[in-house]
Amino acid sequence: LFHYDGGGKASFLPRRNVLPVQLGLNFSDDATQGLVQFVRVMASRAGFPEATVGQIETVVRDTIQTIRKYAYGNQDNNVYHVMVARAGPEIEIRFADSGTSLTADRAGEDGKPLFAAARTHMDRFEIRNHPRGGNVITVSKKAK
Questions:
Q1: What is the pLDDT of residues 80-126, one digit of tens each?
Q2: Are residues 75 and 100 in contact, defined by beta-carbon separation less than 8 angstroms?
């Protein structure tokens, strides 16, 4: 972000990308709706058509519900963290929790893989264990 030449002079580099937004949220309907609306604005500004924005909203809701149900055992009094970043025509959303570790091959009660909406609608879907326990789920999509 900046360069210091050692002689007391610092020069700042121009910002190249939009800074990511990081939030810690609970599982309330208000928090979920607020996040969905925020992601809607970010996706629209990235140039996604309305139908794709709707798919991204579905991914956000599905991911939150899956974390609540499978990582936290439907206990609503927990918190998850989310980071939303937009770089030009691409949006990346990263969820982190401290619940039970999930795996990419785990199926839900309906027999379908967890995070089905993210797997279907996003260009990138990644789930990994958080080093301190829990999960980090990353999804991204680029506007065509």
A1: 999 999 988 999 999 999 999 998 889 998 888 999 999 999 999 99
A2: no
Q: What is the DSSP string of the chain?
A: -EEE-SSS-EEEPPP-SPPPEEEEE-S-HHHHHHHHHHHHHHHHHTT--HHHHHHHHHHHHHHHHHIIIIISTT-TT--EEEEEEEETTEEEEEEEE-SS---TT-B-TTSSBTTHHHHHH-SEEEEEE-TTSSEEEEEEEE--
Q: Kindly state the tokens that stand for 125.
A: 């879907």
Which two structure tokens, joined as six digits, stand for 127?
Answer: 């789930």
- This prediction's pTM: 0.85
Phi-psi region of 6 (alpha: psi -120 to 50; beta: other; left: phi over 0): left
Structure tokens at 76: 């609503």
List residues bridging with 12 in a β-sheet: 2
Q: Are the CB atoms for 6 and 55 separated by under 8 Å? A: no
**CA torsion 80→86→90→91, rounded to 10°?**
20
